[in-house]
Every structure is written in C-alpha cells, then in structure tokens.
Design brief:
Elements lengths: L1 E6 L23 H24 L13 H11 L4 E6 L2 H15 L5 E5 L2 E2 L2 E3 L7 H6 L3 H8 L7 E3 L3 H10 L12 E7 L14 H13 L2 E7 L5 H9 L1 H7 L4 E5 L5 E7 L1
Parallel strand pairs: 1-2, 1-3, 3-7, 7-8
Antiparallel strand pairs: 4-5, 5-6, 8-10, 9-10
Helix pairs in contact: 2-8, 6-7
C-alpha cells in the first residue's frame, strides 16, 4: 500500500485544502477548548497573511507549471484500492495523516511518496515556492517573530535537518513497514532535482534519507529522487507506474528513465 503525501503551501497561512473523506476524531477537548484553539490559530494565520502581503507574496498562488496538488489528488483517488493520500503544510501533519489512514484501513504503508517542490538536497513538505528571503527581509520585530513561527524545519526534508524529520518519522514508525515482495521500504521524493547533490553540503538527499530510514526501520530502504525539474507529466508517470519503477530498482543504485527525459535516480541502503 502506498501513501502519497501532498504538499499544500497555503496551509501555513490558513488556506487549507480538502483531504480524504475520513477525518480523525479530536479527543480530550471540550467545545470551549476547541473554540479557543481555533481563535488562536486564526490569529496566527492573520499574522502570517499580513507578513506575506508585506512581502508581496500570495500563498494561495503557485507560479510553477501545472496544478500538481490537483493532479496528485486525482491520481490518488483513481488508485484508492492500493493507495491513500493526505494534503498538509508540514511533515508533522502529513505523517499524522498517514498514521490515521493506516489505522483506518488496518494496513501499513510500504511506499511513501512526497509530491511538491524540491531542489538539490531538499524536498519541501509545506514551504512550496515561498520567497523566504523576501519574507525574512520584512522589517519589524513582529514580522521576524511571525517568520520564525513558520517553523521551516518542520516543512522540509533536507540533508541538514535530519534530526528533525527523523524524529517525526520515529513518532509514526508503526504505520510503515517493508514490502512483503522485496522486503524493502520505498520513499519517493517527487520534487524537482531531489536526486541531485546539494551544492552546500555535497550530499544527496536520497542517500541521507535511505541510510537514516534504514537504520530507524531496521530494513532495506530505497530512496528515489529526480535529476531535473519536473511538472505534472513526471508526477503522473511516477504515480501511475510506481510498481514498475520499484520492480526495476535492483542492486545498490540506478536510474529509471521517465518518458520526458527526466531520470528518477534511486539508491538502496540495507
């Protein structure tokens, strides 16, 4: 079973997107507590939207080619017999959703695919195309506090913050397990250039993630990342032919050629 974790940049600013039909129950809070929480969250979102406006940024608009969020959701819905998905603006929320879906379907996921933006050494899981330099340059103490409150480390998986994202995986490790077919857990970073070496760290995200997750899950892990920019065409092909791609990933490392000419590079760690 595969879980598709779909990034929604607007979520951090209060622009939520519909998730799967099921919704986890909120336990241990009464109506007054829930209302206070909702009020506090709305105030936080208002502050973030004000920061975005000052930076000339609209978090509801993604200028990249195609609507990957819509495309990934549509494909996930078509494959709901072998797939579940979640839409969120942070890794914590996406993994929480994966745990709920696994419990609800009484299964575990042997494949985890992240769909969103990427770059060398990083897969974003909530940052999207945020102009971070512009947001951080907005003057004022309140603006700086609001920027810091975005907690960017929780909205990306990269070679430099492995302690943060690995800790979140550890919290939800029960919903992931290796495939019975090849005794391997597969993690796919469907974002631009996620298979390339970071110019700052000289490390590959796929290598770092495969090694870290293999140690955590105590099983073989295959990590996949693209070697160039991608659009909906590549995302659709990866989701549609994921079983073929996984089946071809034999040996310690290799590459799967997508129809558009982009390669999905992969590495295996025991």
């Amino acid at each position: 079973m595969m879980f598709i974790a779909i990034e929604n940049m607007g979520s951090a600013f209060g622009h939520k997107d519909s998730n799967t039909r099921n919704k986890p129950e909120v336990k241990g809070q009464n109506k007054t507590q829930l209302q206070r929480h909702a009020t506090a969250k709305e105030k936080l979102y208002e502050e973030r939207r004000a920061l975005a406006k000052s930076a000339g940024f609209d978090p509801r608009f993604d200028p990249s080619e195609g609507n990957f969020l819509f495309a990934a959701k549509l494909l996930a819905e078509k494959r709901k017999d072998t797939c579940r998905y979640g839409v969120a603006g942070s890794l914590k929320s996406l993994l929480k959703r994966a745990a709920f879906e696994a419990q609800n379907a009484r299964t575990t996921f042997d494949t985890l695919m992240f769909v969103g933006h990427g770059n060398t050494g990083v897969m974003t899981v909530g940052i999207g195309c945020m102009p971070l330099d512009q947001l951080q340059s907005v003057k004022g103490r309140k603006a700086q506090e609001t920027f810091d409150g975005l907690k960017l480390d929780n909205r990306m998986i990269n070679v430099a913050n492995s302690d943060t994202w690995l800790g979140l995986f550890d919290e939800h490790r029960a919903c992931f397990a290796p495939s019975r077919g090849d005794d391997t857990f597969h993690v796919v970073f469907a974002g631009c250039s996620t298979g390339n070496k970071s110019e700052k760290s000289y490390k590959h995200l796929t290598h770092v993630a495969a090694a870290a997750l293999a140690n955590l899950f105590q099983c073989q892990v295959n990590a996949y990342g693209t070697d160039d920019e991608i659009t909906n065409d590549e995302i659709e092909e990866i989701i549609t032919f994921i079983e073929t791609i996984k089946g071809s990933a034999t040996g310690g490392s290799g590459s799967y050629a997508l129809k558009t000419g982009v390669n999905l590079d992969w590495v295996k760690r025991p």
